[in-house]
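Two proteins were folded this term; both appear here.
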Amino acid sequence: MAELTTLARPYAKAVFAEASEKKALDAWSEDLALLSAVSADAGMLKVTGHPSLTSKQQAQALIDVCGDKLNEAAKNLVAVLSENKRLALLPEIAALYEEMKAQLQNTVDVVVTSAFELTSEQAEKLTQSLKARLQCDVRMTSEIDETLVGGAIIRAGDLVIDGSVKGKLSKLAEAMKS
């Protein structure tokens, strides 16, 4: 994973620089999300990894599947990645780009996993608390994992706050073993 990130970072930085210069951050987000999804498809992986196809043919296949939704710069990115045998990096490039965009916009994506669905009041309270703690705008999504029993796990970038009953029981069991 670290190797993929290292390989993808220069491409993500170049795309981010282009998007910032042209004031097209959201357009590039859409293009990269589409390219990431299409390139990760099992059928597309067979095409882009097929040894009998040239890099131009592989790039064109990916572009054709995306249709007219890609701008010329995104098509050029696909061509460059294909020429350098780096099409598999598209999901990682998209993720790095989104991190750079969020940092620029001073926002963070937070995923809250809880045993039960959060009420709108709970979600709002949690959003405000995280906004104060992280000192940036928070975009929150929630997931349900009934195995947590109760409480929640909050993930914001590298920060993970495990307030679940399952997590607390695991810590207690570990403490009792030592």
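Next, the second protein.
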Amino acid sequence: MDRDTLRAFLRDMLLARAFEEAAAEQYTKGNIAGFLHLYPGEEAVAVGVIHATEPADYVVSTYREHVHALVRGTPPRQVMAELFGRRDGISRGMGGSMHLFDRERRFMGGYAIVGETYPVAIGVGYAIAMRDLPEVAICFFGDGAVNQGTFHESLNMAALWRLPVLFVCENNHYQIGTEIHRHSAVTEVFRRAAAYNIPAERVDGMDVFKVHEVTSRMLREIRSGGGPRFVECETYRLRGHSMADPGSYRPQIEVRAYASTDPVSAAISEAVPAYPSREQLAGVGRDAIDHVTEHGLGAGHLDPAEVDGIKSEVQQLVQEAVEFAKQSPDPEMAEAWRCLHVNRRNESLI
């Protein structure tokens, strides 16, 4: 892992965490209304996957999409302004938390309907295939969406037509408050792709380096004409399903266990050449030993002072985003009408 890539991973993961915590704070202050689904704990998936993509690729996301947009390059101030419902937001204040859209960066939106990302990604993939372009549609979805009919229909079409689509399951083990073994007969989600002859595998979604490695390989295979691919990223959200969910249905020992493998902390451990002793490693348990030895005994490209500098940089960026959102004006009805009449032949959408 070269220094620049490592630094980019670390910066984006720290930015993601700082942004989401700031969003939670603004929600409690009443500056953000409606639903707010936050991402802390899952940063390794967004960073690992999206850093493997090319600028010409398309990203289709779910309602938990703030971090996907940030990693794709959407300015934090535009994302925050959208959460505030302000005119300077990336969707002009009319989409809100679940409907970010960035045409310039081919971020095709967050979608509030569970399972809606599949047909959108399939449509994008079909358009790419028809034009014979070296592009890929990245389709994010959660474990709770794999029981929707659109999942099976879309995987079947993608395989049948060999569409350039990468299906990315962010498996955080809970469909809102229902644990995966209570809502799915097949809990190893990646195995479902076998029914449609799509190569698939599972990866540790708390490990940004493994996610990036697997995604990079699959994208190369797709671009070479291999058809769709499927990756299941096993991850964990450290907060409830949304700001309205305290997450009390989850055992605290489970939350603490996953928090101990926090991907942001892991990225910092990889970046800073401060290695624990054998005695310290032995005292924290088997899983932590594997985690630290895989990620911590690395290159040491950054020193602690530089890590602190990155933290300060992203905190300032997030604070500026909050202030920008507060100063942004509210959208006007005239703007909504202009958005309604945007089709090529000026036909109405309703």
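The first strand starts at residue 58 and ends at 62. The chain has one domain: 3-339. These notes refer to the second protein only.
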